[in-house]
Amino acid sequence: MVFTSRQPPGLLWPDYLRKPHPSTDYIQKKYLSNTFARTLERTNVLGDDDEYGHTGCVNALAWAEDGNLLLTAGDDTTVRLWRMDPTADSESDYPFVCRSVIKTGHRANIFNVAMLPHFRPDVCGLISNQVTCAGDKQIRVFDAAAALDIQDGVETEFSARELSSRVIRCHKGRVKKLCTEDSPDVFLSLSEDGTVRQHDLRMRHNCREDDCPASLVEMKDSDGDPVELSNISLSCLTPYQFIVVGESPCGYLFDRRQLRRVMEHEWGMVPRTGEVTTCVRRFARPQPPVERREKRRQDHISGCRMSDTNGHEVPYMKDNIYLFSTLDDPVSNDDMAIRGSTVVGPNLLKDSRSPSSTSSRQLRALSTTQCSPDEPSMTDGAGEIRIAEDEGGERPSSDDEEAELDFLFASNFGNEWQYSGVPIVHPRQTYAGHRSRDTVKDVNFLGPFDEYVVSGSDDGNWFVWQKDSGKLHGIYEGDSSVVNVVEGHPSLPLVAVSGIDATVKLFSPAPGGASAFSRMHRAKEIMESNAKHKPVVRVPLAQLFVHAARMQLFGGEGVDGDEESAVSGSEPSCPTQ
């Protein structure tokens, strides 16, 4: 038999041989994904409350060296390097032990720690750079090669001087986050001074002489004051894109390919609004028109993370967790008007009533609130009005009542007008059930395909949701008080969790499916309890009258956005954040 085709016929070439076979890497990831579908159990605790481990809250976790190393840092201003040691006296399947402790020299809590990828050759050998940032406004860089070489079973301490530390003082506020890319020398930093900076360790400069390179991002409110930023995330697939969140109802996507270096700023001239950087997208949730304006005070966004597997999905956290995509189409202006989004331009916030009547109504409402003898007192000893929601949900309010409070809260988000023309993307999924009010928390992906979304909670638990469906997948006890950080291992079914406790907890799939630390059997009770903890907004009476007077003086065209005069939350804040 003679075949004219070069392809053997089907009878001689079975279908299963003609189909492409999955790679070994894909098979391993698929197996790892299946393990995360099971219930998790706490398998190890790194540190104790006495002599071993950290002595304060653990604010930062980072896996390094492909997961062979776990970096931890926190209030005690030290960085601990944990390695898996099979010879350790431990019954855990993951016997991580600390062999190296770095005394960083920071004078305030460490907020983030990172190991720059790859070793960099130097005249003295190979250098492995480790970076920390803290509340003392400093970034410190260490050559951690010596600390990584510890092989014996004795815990060794290293001072900053021993590891050739380098101090970077470019920021004027607390430095909250670091972002690494595929470089041993380049990383990004984010600060409460409203800036994002790119650092290249190969380029030396003197911070004390104000010789710092220009910042990539500089966010300011309508009064020119810095907007506090809290988190940044870099896309590993498209590293020119990063998202920034903070004291704003929006997340902001920047593209470094479009970042413009403002020469006027370097010459000492004040750049015009919009010229400092280029924002290409905003991410914000829609709000119904009936939603009360005081809820805007909750719009501080604490966590964000860009997906490592597809590079375009972004969850961020405020009242709930929302999943966005940089590939989704922006919302049209008509849709925004219909849905009543909070993310609107300043012209849409202005009331159609006359300025004089608006100010009169505001003053009349304030006088009634302060002096009415028939109502129970809503002020405390500091002369503040307490605005709270009942446990049943949102109390009814008229459009007039909302408009009277607009002038209070518009100033809090003056930075929104800086990028008012940037397209807005709405979320594709929402995740609820946790509580995030007392501390700054991270949100993260879990699984080899980023198939789960995870976050800590104020109730001491950490939550797992299925990314696509939004369904709650797991609740686990992770801290005696609050869980702030959840980091999954890059290649093993292992999750590290930390918070207010001085210890780090490790979770892995439970043998037999039973877990002593799973709280899914109480899921309804926990979620209902978290939903009842509504924040209380405190409004200083004096500031109410000052703002109302300004409204009348300026004809209702705007209010002063001084951060100190803005409404301040009454919730207790974590001392570490």
UniProtKB/TrEMBL annotation:
In this chain, composition skew of type Polar residues spans: 567-577
Region Disordered, residue ranges: 287-310, 345-381, 557-577
List the biased-composition ranges (Basic and acidic residues).
290-302
Protein name, as recorded? WD repeat-containing protein
PANTHER family per the UniProt record, alphabetical: WD AND TETRATRICOPEPTIDE REPEATS PROTEIN 1 (PTHR15574:SF40), WD REPEAT DOMAIN-CONTAINING FAMILY (PTHR15574)
Judging by the UniProt lineage, the source's domain of life is: Eukaryota
Looking up InterPro entries in the UniProt record yields: DCAF8, WD40/YVTN_repeat-like_dom_sf, WD40_repeat_dom_sf, WD40_rpt
